[in-house]
C-alpha cells in the first residue's frame, strides 16, 4: 500500500453523538426505510462491519455513521449488518442489501481479498463501494477511508520499546507479538510498522501469532500457551495489535499469577483499554478518532448516492496495484499522560464513564477528572 500525496487531516474535536444500539440485535435498519428507487433524498445506504468481538463497531462506528447520515439526509436510511467474523456471511449480507436496492455500500471487509467479489457484484448493479477502514483488494473500489495504518504499528512498536528502555529492561530481552487477523490488510500494515521499530531495537521477538478474526479468546489461549512454554519471566514486553486482543493477553498473564505485568500495547482506545491503562495494566493504546472516519464515510456515501464521484486527498494502491481515491487520518498514541487531552477532550468518553468506583483512584493519580 502506498500513499502518493499529502495526507488528509480531519479535526478530531467533535462530540460523540447519541449512541443508538439495537440491543441484542446485530443486524437491522437504523432508520425508517425510504422508498429508495431513484430518489437520493430517500437513499438506502448499506453499512457492513466485520466482527462482533471488537468493541469499536457497536460503540462507535455504527452509531456515528448512522447519526451523520441522518444529519445530512433525514430521508435516507442505513441498512446495517455485522459479518461476525465470517466472509461468506458478509457476502450474503451484501447480496441481500443489493437486492433491497441500496445506492451505495460502505464495506469494512472481514476478508479483504474475498470481499472483491462483493465489489464486483455491486459494480454489476452500478452500486459504488466505499472500502471502510480496511482495504479491499479490488480494482473497482470507489473510495477508501482509513488511517495511516503502518504508522499505527510504528506508534505501538515505538511505545513498547520506549517503555522497556524506561524500565531499564536489558537489550536481548524477549517480546511476544499478538498480531491481528491474517484476512485483514490493516493487520499486516500494523505488523509491518511494529516490526520496523522492534526489529532494530535490540529486543528479541520470541514468538508471534496472527490472531484469526482478531478473536480475543484465541489471543488469550495462544498467550497462555507461550507463558507455559517460555516462562512468564522471559516475556518482558507484549505487542498486542488492539485493545481487545491485548485484554486477552493480560487475562492470560494474570491467570498465570503474574503480579507485575510487562508493558502491553493496544489500539482503538476502547473504554476497557483506557481503564486498563489508567490502572497500570496496559501500557498504551492507539486512538484513531472514529468520529471523523465514520462521518467522512457517511458524507461520501451520500455524495455517491447522489451520483457524484468525490476525489480523495490522496491515493492508495491495493495489493494488485490498483490506485484508489483515499482519505487517511492520523493515529495518536495514548498513555496515562494524554488520556485527558485525547479521548476525554474529544468527548469519546465522559470522565464518569471511565472513572467508575473501581478506577477512581487510578483516575486521581493520572489527573483525569
Ligand atoms: C481495525 C482496528 C480493529 C481491528 C479488529 C482493524 O482493521 O483497524 O481498529 O481493532 O480491525 O476488528
In words, what does this structure look like?
The structure is a single chain. With 369 residues, the chain is α/β, with parallel strands linked by helices. The protein has 2 domains: 40-147 and 290-329, Rossmann fold, CATH 3.40.50.2300; 149-288 and 332-366, 3-Layer(aba) Sandwich (Rossmann fold). The chain is built from 12 helices and 13 strands. It has helices at 55-72, 87-99, 116-124, 149-166, 185-198, 216-230, 243-255, 271-278, 290-305, 340-344, 351-354, 360-366; strands at residues 28-29, 44-49, 77-82, 104-107, 129-132, 143-147, 174-179, 204-210, 235-240, 285-287, 314-317, 323-329, 332-334. The strands form 3 sheets. The chain has an 8-stranded mixed β-sheet, with helices on both faces. Strands 8-7-9 form a 3-stranded parallel β-sheet, sandwiched between helices. Strands 10-13 form a two-stranded antiparallel ribbon. Helix 6 (216-230) crosses helix 7. The chain binds beta-D-glucopyranose. Beta-D-glucopyranose (BGC) binds at residues 50-51, 54, 56, 133-134, 180, 184, 186, 214, 242, 267-268.
Secondary-structure blueprint:
Layout: E1 28-29, E2 44-49, H1 55-72, E3 77-82, H2 87-99, E4 104-107, H3 116-124, E5 129-132, E6 143-147, H4 149-166, E7 174-179, H5 185-198, E8 204-210, H6 216-230, E9 235-240, H7 243-255, H8 271-278, E10 285-287, H9 290-305, E11 314-317, E12 323-329, E13 332-334, H10 340-344, H11 351-354, H12 360-366
Parallel strand pairs: 2-3, 2-4, 4-5, 5-6, 6-12, 7-8, 7-9
Antiparallel strand pairs: 1-3, 10-13, 11-12
The protein binds beta-D-glucopyranose (BGC).
Beta-D-glucopyranose (BGC) is lined by residues 50-51, 54, 56, 133-134, 180, 184, 186, 214, 242, 267-268.
Amino acid at each position: 500500500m502506498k500513499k502518493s500525496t499529502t495526507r488528509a487531516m480531519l479535526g478530531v474535536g467533535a462530540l460523540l453523538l447519541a449512541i443508538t444500539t439495537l440491543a441484542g440485535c446485530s443486524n437491522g435498519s437504523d432508520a425508517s426505510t425510504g422508498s429508495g428507487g431513484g430518489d437520493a433524498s430517500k437513499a438506502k445506504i448499506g453499512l457492513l462491519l466485520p466482527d462482533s468481538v471488537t468493541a469499536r463497531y457497536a460503540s462507535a462506528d455504527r452509531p456515528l455513521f448512522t447519526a451523520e447520515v441522518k444529519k445530512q439526509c433525514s430521508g435516507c436510511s442505513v441498512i446495517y449488518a455485522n459479518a461476525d467474523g465470517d466472509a461468506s456471511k458478509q457476502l450474503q449480507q451484501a447480496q441481500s442489501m443489493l437486492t433491497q436496492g441500496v445506492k451505495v455500500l460502505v464495506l469494512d471487509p472481514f476478508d479483504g481479498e474475498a470481499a472483491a467479489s462483493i465489489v464486483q457484484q455491486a459494480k454489476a448493479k452500478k452500486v459504488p463501494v466505499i472500502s471502510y477502514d480496511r482495504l479491499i483488494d479490488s480494482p473497482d473500489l470507489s473510495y477508501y477511508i482509513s488511517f495511516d495504518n503502518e504508522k499505527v504499528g510504528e506508534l505501538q512498536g515505538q511505545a513498547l520499546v520506549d517503555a522497556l528502555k524506561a524500565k531499564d529492561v536489558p537489550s536481548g530481552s524477549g517480546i511476544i507479538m499478538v498480531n491481528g487477523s491474517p484476512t485483514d490488510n490493516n493487520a499486516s500494515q500494523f505488523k509491518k510498522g511494529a516490526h520496523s521499530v522492534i526489529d532494530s531495537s535490540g529486543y528479541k521477538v520470541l514468538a508471534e501469532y496472527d490472531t484469526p478474526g482478531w478473536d480475543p479468546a484465541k489471543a488469550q489461549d495462544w498467550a497462555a500457551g507461550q507463558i507455559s512454554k517460555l516462562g512468564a519471566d522471559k516475556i518482558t514486553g507484549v505487542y498486542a495489535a488492539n485493545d481487545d486482543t491485548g485484554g486477552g493477553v493480560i487475562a492470560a498473564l494474570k491467570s498465570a499469577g503474574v503480579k507485575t505485568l510487562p508493558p502491553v500495547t493496544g489500539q482503538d482506545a476502547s473504554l476497557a483499554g483506557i481503564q486498563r491503562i489508567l490502572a497500570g495494566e496496559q501500557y498504551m493504546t492507539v486512538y484513531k478518532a472514529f468520529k471523523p472516519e465514520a462521518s467522512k464515510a457517511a458524507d461520501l456515501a451520500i455524495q455517491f448516492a447522489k451520483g457524484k464521484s468525490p476525489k480523495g486527498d490522496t491515493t492508495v494502491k491495493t495489493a494488485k496495484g490498483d490506485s484508489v481515491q483515499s482519505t487517511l487520518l492520523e493515529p495518536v498514541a495514548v498513555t496515562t499522560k494524554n488520556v485527558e487531552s485525547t479521548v476525554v477532550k474529544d468527548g469519546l468518553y465522559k470522565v464518569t464513564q471511565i472513572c467508575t468506583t473501581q478506577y477512581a483512584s487510578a483516575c486521581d493519580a493520572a489527573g483525569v477528572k
